[in-house]
Write a structure and sequence with these properties.
This protein is of the alpha+beta class and about 150 residues long. The chain contains three helices and eight strands; from the N terminus they run βαββββαβββα. The two termini are about 25 Å apart.
Length: about 150
């Protein structure tokens, strides 16, 4: 079963956690110094926010799936849209290791299809103070206008 994914970059993590906790009527399921995530069932969404130096606003959208078979179906859909997709196997992003496919829509919005494999202790594998929220491959970021996504 698929879960819609939304990732926003925020200016103030604490204020945003308070706002979204109230809006969703639930505490985040994951809270880190630079990141929070809600895994909601109504609506079925993986909603993540991060404060990592990126411009506040939409970072990327996507679909979280429960198996590599479902992930292959997402990739088939991305490929049928006739825009490039990029495969990442075992990618480290947002405190989770995942298999992923990335694409960018005609407006430059990054889309991610991913199957989470395991939790990890870091946001990504390039832990530096200048890292931004998005884990999209560099080629995808360039297609989206040179920024992260």
């Amino acid at each position: 079963m698929k879960r819609f994914h939304v990732h926003l970059s925020v200016a103030d993590l604490g204020d945003s956690i308070r706002y979204y906790t109230s809006l969703f009527g639930a505490e985040p399921t994951v809270t880190k110094p630079d990141y929070a995530k809600w895994m909601l069932d109504d609506p079925r969404v993986n909603f993540a926010i991060s404060q990592r130096g990126a411009k506040p606003g939409l970072d990327h959208l996507g679909f979280q799936v429960e198996s590599d078979e479902e992930l292959a179906q997402i990739n088939e859909r991305l490929e049928s849209a006739e825009l490039p997709s990029v495969e990442e196997t075992g990618a480290a992003c947002c405190y989770v290791r995942s298999n992923k496919y990335w694409s960018v829509d005609p407006q430059g919005v990054a889309w991610e299809g991913f199957h989470s494999l395991s939790d990890i202790p870091t946001f990504n594998e390039a832990e530096d103070s200048g890292a931004t929220a998005c884990c999209a491959p560099k080629a995808q970021a360039q297609q989206a206008g040179g920024g992260c996504c």
